[in-house]
Amino acid sequence: MKVIIVGIKRMGAGLAMKLDRKGHHVTLIDDEKESFQILGDDFKGKKIVGFGFDRNILKEAGIDKVDAVVSCTRSDEMNAVIARIAKNIYLVPHVIARLYDPQKAEIYQRLGIQTISTNTWGIERAIELLTYSQLDSVYEMGNASVNLVRIEIPALLVGHVVNEITVIGEISITSISRHNNTFIPTLRTIFEKEDTLYITVISSATNKLKSILGLM
């Protein structure tokens, strides 16, 4: 995966180093050259000094060829601008903005921008958002006879309810992550755009689940 991270302070640096260690191609942008010193000598990614909203800088970073952009500057407004440029102009598939003011989360979501908080959990949440596949196994139980998987809600299921993809004894929606909150749904919970579903499924029903989700 190719990722651009804008803003190399504590969160940006932590995210960059974790992605780099996982073998992803990471390009960093920061307007202060000294910020890159926090990365150490082991970091293999590309470093660019400049402003993340500058289109020439973004082109130098290869924004037209990346899979994701994460904006981690110290300004919510700047992060929103960079995220919107990445999403609306360059059509980057995954765009995440660091958020200091949680009251702005709903506004970001309406713009189609995922958000992360300002603590260590935010780094782990960003890793999760960036690195899972269409149907990703999170945890295997009982010699892999039961799996906990996750997937971003397919468009065809938005507006439907949990009960429609629940199969007693085979498939169960364990939890839903929505707007940076995770909760246990009821059978009547309605799926919303950009929900991340955590689903418990027995191994013999995996293809049935894929069919229900429209992955087959």
How would you describe this protein?
The protein has about 220 residues and is α/β, with parallel strands linked by helices. It folds into two domains: about 1-130, 3-Layer(aba) Sandwich (Rossmann fold); about 135-215, Regulator of K+ conductance, C-terminal domain (Alpha-Beta Plaits, 2-Layer Sandwich), CATH 3.30.70.1450. Helices cover about 25% and strands about 25% of the residues. It has six helices and eleven strands. A six-stranded parallel sheet has the order 3-2-1-4-5-6, sandwiched between helices. A five-stranded antiparallel sheet has the order 7-8-11-9-10, with no helix packed on it. Helix 1 crosses helix 5. The longest helix is centred in the middle third of the chain and has 14 residues, at about 75-90.
